[in-house]
Amino acid sequence: MKKGIHEAMEMHEVLNDEACTIEHYSMYTSQCQDHELRNILERQQRHMIEDYHRKLSVMQGHGLDVSAASRLNMEHMGAGQNTHSYPSTNTGTKHLNDKTIAAGALLFHKCGATRSTNAALECSEPHLRNLLAGSARSCMEMAYEIFQFMSHKGWYQLPEIPQRFINHMPSQQQYAQHQYTQQQ
Predict the structure, then answer these.
(1) Of 125 and 181, more confident
(2) What is the predicted pLDDT for the residue at 87?
(3) Name one Pfam family in it (predicted).
(4) Which of 21, 48, 132, 179 has its CA 20 to 30 A from that of 162?
(5) Half-sphere exposure at residue 20, Cβ-oriented, CA atoms within 13 angstroms
(6) 40-98, pLDDT tens digit by residue?
(7) Whether 116 contacts 136, CB under 8 Å
């Protein structure tokens, strides 16, 4: 198998991002007050840890160096433990509220999906590409789960689309399809 520098660089970045997300989840679970949200976060964190270790194993199996990859700080992985303080926009905040925790988790998953997709697009090795594509899909599913929770709580409301816009959409789609077929 050919191993390109892209694979090593992309996997290194993905692993660093995932380690950061997992450590933030430790902080989130220790500060979360909502029982349902805490259960979601704990389950998602377990999944992310398994995925992280799976990526390390695959990299090692393909002969890629993982020594520079971020190591998970497992002493901070338990819920309820004190964690390091992290900067936030409100620097006087010592405790995050549940809405901010959920928004942070959603943001991490959206960024993770984008990061894994971009990394997969840079991989020439099919097994790594599939692993990263699966990771992107997993991030999308976890983001959707957080979105549903936030929507149920009224924390993430989607704006309503004006009816005139909805009525105008089919004609725009037909116009775009017509333009595309004329270019062929």
Answers:
(1) 125
(2) 35
(3) Coat_F
(4) 179
(5) 13
(6) 999 999 999 999 999 998 888 877 666 656 566 655 444 433 333 333 345 556 789 99
(7) yes
How many domains does the chain fold into?
1
What the block records as the tokens of 118 is: 């971009």
Residue 72 · residue 18 · CB < 8 Å: no
How far is it, in rounded angstroms, from Cα 104 to Cα 128?
28
Phi then psi for residue 80, to 5 deg, are 85, -5
The amino acid sitting at 14 is V
Distance (Å, rounded) from C-alpha 151 to C-alpha 128? 34
Task: Provide the whole-model pTM.
Answer: 0.74
CATH number at residue 70: 1.20.1260.10
8 Å CB contact between 140 and 120: no
- Number of DSSP helices (H) and strands (E) in the chain, helices first: 5, 0
Q: How far, CA to CA in Å, does 91 sit from each of 33, 85, 95, 100, 108?
A: 20, 10, 10, 14, 20
The pair of structure tokens assigned to 135 is 């990771």
What's the domain range around 127? 5-183
Instruction: Give the other-Cβ count within 10 Å of 150's Cβ.
Output: 19
112 pLDDT tier (thresholds 50, 70, 90): very high
